[in-house]
Amino acid sequence: MTYTAQMLDTYPAEINLEHDRLSRVIDALTSCAQACTACADACLSEPADELPRLARCIRDNLDCADICTATAAVLSRHTGYDARLTKAQVEAAIQATKTCGDSCAEHSEQHEHCRLCAQSCQETEQALRDLVPHLTPSGAGVQQPHQAAPQQGI
Amino acid sequence: MTYTAQMLDTYPAEINLEHDRLSRVIDALTSCAQACTACADACLSEPADELPRLARCIRDNLDCADICTATAAVLSRHTGYDARLTKAQVEAAIQATKTCGDSCAEHSEQHEHCRLCAQSCQETEQALRDLVPHLTPSGAGVQQPHQAAPQQGI
Amino acid sequence: MTYTAQMLDTYPAEINLEHDRLSRVIDALTSCAQACTACADACLSEPADELPRLARCIRDNLDCADICTATAAVLSRHTGYDARLTKAQVEAAIQATKTCGDSCAEHSEQHEHCRLCAQSCQETEQALRDLVPHLTPSGAGVQQPHQAAPQQGI
Amino acid sequence: MTYTAQMLDTYPAEINLEHDRLSRVIDALTSCAQACTACADACLSEPADELPRLARCIRDNLDCADICTATAAVLSRHTGYDARLTKAQVEAAIQATKTCGDSCAEHSEQHEHCRLCAQSCQETEQALRDLVPHLTPSGAGVQQPHQAAPQQGI
């Protein structure tokens, strides 16, 4: 159990995204970052003759972990919500979970940790894709600044 | 639902810690990092006359988020497990969750997000404290290097 | 003095980017992440009546710090270099440094730390923009996988 | 060139540490985090028969990178400076740079990237050790809370 949903419900300003959808994405991202960090390390513990084949998977795990962690932090901040920035980071996370999910899927049959990690990446990628249409597209950024919470009523 | 416990169960080398205990700590840390990031941002959205009083809380939130994220990553790696390093980082996380939990608790009655964040910090601090006796103490580090998974059988 | 350039020169595989350009971007990103973290904290230390006006700046600082740190890590990995992933993360960092640079620039006259942070953001944004044309565009990804270092000769 | 020293000089509140010493530590930490990330990836690009021997080094690199990044962020925040928290995190970073420096030093003759990374770890460890006596020891924490910048004059 995480506090993500409850934290959203007690937020003192308006959030322009459905709470359920947003908390699902954040939880998927933090869980995926953990799975990727653990999968990279599990790969490093595989027998010596397996290691070279796993080098790319390890690297994709590390990129995905770093990007998911940063994206979860960005989505956990709602003040001054800037759709262009959020969208660009979400797009990077979609690419990272896709790349890592594909890498891990190649080793799913040999390594159970890769199968689980691929599953976590795919779920996260899907949750991110579901979020995109709800982020105000860059083009409509005209009205964005005025929606920024900390600028209201100051 | 996270993948932490399942990732531990599919780890290809031995882990010198009870899986349940370890996965509980990792999940508490990632959840606490998220709650702290969200709480810092919620504080920034409070009315102007509340902000100065919350400055310290925001700073403690940010420290706690960074430290919990790093600690979760360190605990998610088991290869070459080094008790001194793990213990030192766990001690830092105990201090960070204690400091932030105390800070947030001061504002629990005024701000529901601070109450929730304090609760997450306290739970995480407790989970970390429960882990410490199970980490081989620094003094016994003599036998540590030989337990390092990737060095065995290579 | 950082080790970035030297680390690039001792890399055991080929790197498809000019070393000078790449090390400049990485150094700009890590420096910008530090400046943003420090600027957020400096804003929190400003007099009470200044704080509300700085809330958005603080939030942009935090987003920019997280995104620059993740981007520096991704660019510091060259194994299995995936142009689409790298490009998406670089685009997110361009947006983050632009957003934060603009936010800080609004307070440059009142706060010297905002002026310095805006300068760091602008330099980093420029370094990132200079890198983009040298990242193989997504469309040309066909030949990408074969350039991935760990997949060669395996 | 980084902005660390300049950011310190424009900080709007008092900092209870010598600016030169502090900025040197922060710069060493961010540089070390980058070197460790790059060294882990360089290790992954070494020939297949070298990889198993480097697994532990890679893991130590990753731990050290995560811990140095978090420590640099904590030291870049001066508001509400809490000596116990700062000291605990600095101690963890001393252990991380020591462990990783030792690991990399074992491969210094074979791998130039390990030699450079070991050097960065050792410099950072030394800079951190030089800082410790200047952090008010935990025992003297009595007067700490009152030094916290955001609590003054509020």
Automatic annotation (TrEMBL), chains A, B, C, D:
Residues 144-154 have a biased composition (Polar residues). It comes from the Bacteria. InterPro entries: Csp_YhjQ (IPR005560), YHJQ-like (IPR044543). CDD domains: DUF326. Gene3D superfamilies: 1.20.1270.360. Residues 135-154 are annotated as: Disordered. This is Four-helix bundle copper-binding protein. It comes from Actinomadura miaoliensis. The lineage of its organism: Bacteria, Bacillati, Actinomycetota, Actinomycetes, Streptosporangiales.
